[in-house]
Design brief:
The complex is a heterodimer of chains A (360) and B (318).
Chain A lengths: L4 E4 L3 H11 L1 E8 L2 E6 L17 H4 L3 E11 L7 E7 L6 E6 L1 H14 L7 H8 L1 E6 L25 E5 L3 E6 L2 H6 L6 E2 L4 H14 L14 H4 L2 H8 L7 H5 L6 E7 L3 E8 L20 H19 L11 H4 L7 H7 L18
Parallel strand pairs in A: 2-6, 6-7, 7-8
Antiparallel strand pairs in A: 1-9, 1-10, 2-3, 4-5, 4-12, 8-9, 11-12
Helix pairs in contact in A: 8-10
Chain B lengths: L2 H12 L4 E6 L8 E5 L29 E5 L1 H12 L8 E5 L8 H7 L5 E7 L3 E6 L2 E6 H4 L2 H4 L11 E2 L15 H6 L4 H13 L6 H5 L25 H14 L9 H5 L7 H15 L30
Helix pairs in contact in B: 7-9, 9-11
Classes of the chains: A alpha+beta (360), B alpha/beta (318).
Amino acid sequence: MIEIGFLKKENLQAFLKELSGRYSVYAPVVEDDIVSFKPFIEGREICLDRPANLSPKSVIFPQCETLFSYSFLKKAENPDKVDVKLEEKMDFRDTVIFGARPCDAKGFNILDRVYKDSDIPDPYYTGRREKTLIIGLACSAPSPGCFCVAVGGGPADKEGSDILITELANGYVLEPVTEKGKAMLQSSLIESGQGYLQEAQKKQEDTKQKVKNPFTKTGKPQISQKIFNDDGFWERSLSKCVSCAACTFLCPTCYCFNITDEARLKEGERIRTWDACMFFHFTLEASGHNPRPTKFNRFKNRVGHKFVYYPEKYNGVIACCGCGRCIRYCPVSVDISKIVDDLSETNPEESNLTSNGGKA
Amino acid sequence: MSIEMLRDVVKKVLEEVDVVIGYTEGFDKIHTTPFFIDTPEQVDELIWNPTCVHNLATYLPSLKKKVGVVVKGCDSRTIVQYMQEGLINRDNIKIIGIPCKGIISVKRLSKAIDYANIEDVVFENEGKITVKTDKGDKTVAMVDIMPDKCKTCQYPTPVIYDYLIGDPIKSDKPQESVYADIVEFDKKTPEEKLQYWLKEFDRCIRCYACRNACPMCICQDSCIAETREPHWISQKLTTQEKFMFHLIHAVHLAGRCVECGECERVCPMGIPVNKLKRKINLDMKELFDYVPGINPDDKPPMYTFNVDELKIKEHKIG
């Protein structure tokens, strides 16, 4: 029984091929310079040298999914009446996400509290989540804008992963985190990695030291209620925001959705799609009133949700995994970590909104 | 020009307006960020270099106050177009123009330095840039990391301004080069073009960064992409729906797109969305001999009509 595994670099494709016999395997692939998680196809080049532009969130929480389809049928015996026929789509396959970064893996734990471990679990999310294994990849270097350590994570954090792999010069060290992960090590392609563990751990620790902490005053997010509720703060900080959804759609922890009926004449589908709190329509009410009419109100909500409301509800856990995507890819370089830093008082005693920087 | 000249002018303009929009350093040395200045103390943080990529004129219609704005040549065309369409009050705007020799493409530079963390950037003479990163230093030629629009730029000096920082620069790029890539692309068969766009739009995530960063997308919160009544586009994530949105975006910009390239620059998925708009602009140029954002007294072709359009023979009436 292998406790710590080692996979030679030249066997990566073979290992993924072996896995794809039992699972749908998603891995980061590069196309037109953009890295995203796509189904593994033998020979397709896997990109492990930088984090994916898009987090693997959509594998478990698709950007668009059909909840059910419906059709109206006239009753033969009484054409004045119609029958509504509903067809649910709940066909979930055993899946492996290979090469998720620790921040990506942690993102799923943040979604879990809302969709899986709540009083009313979401059957679609839970169905996929329970059939999905995550092989996390420890980061070799921080990426521009990322800050995982300051929000309770780390570039080799094991939380959320079933196996954590660390890249060394000639192969990957595989550390199982869960029993399911341990079972996956039983492959002829995987040898014992016990001898490499120390080197891997040293690399993990070295990388951790390089991750920046953007919270200059307090070392961790600590939001002052006074500044948070000052409209002027948001207007000063967010004048440049263009109110698009690049930040929310690239985010591993944003989980808001919209439900629409896409109807044709006698049939249609009820679909669920990602929604974004940055959009005007997100809070537009049927009366025409919009409680968050400006981009300032909307961004305050985005920060509030991740750093105030979610921690209040879930034992101090911050709903940001520090991946830095919203900062890197923002059209105008809005930096959420700087905003949160600006929201803290120099004297932490006065900060009374959050938070304990807890582990997700 | 020197940065001091710019700062001096901004201080002076600040006396006459409520806010001046310029650039300041972002989270790293290549991610510069728009900077809203309303006190003289902020002026020292103002910067100007080839990382000043954003089209700051985009903010003008939404700001209902007196505004000073720093513009490059390409951005200045936005202001002219706004004037043509009555979207701004020129009297409320002070334009600080900067002649520009070209900016960087953050995507191209990031790729050139292997997506490393940036510690510092030095702009050398002779169009070179040296980036110090955690993976080592790298010097690249500006021409290799410029956006396409700079390579064929016809308007290095702003077409409209109240203050010009430095001496005007004349374009040394041949005019025929502007649409050379579009003419070349047009040689593909319709099927090849369809396949090209299906592949590109497949990865669109419908974040609407292209729309929201577009200076001429004026429908904003009433965009056809999200309205439920009428329900033109479904929320489904099919390539067909994405394609539809991008085509509507392009057609809405016919004869209005000033080719600032913001749509393409901001796309987090690297989709060349500006190509569609430039193709339509080329058609507008051929049909109506019209170039958007040059003369404030022009009328955009789609805002007017001549009964007898000179170049549209087949529709000739009476």
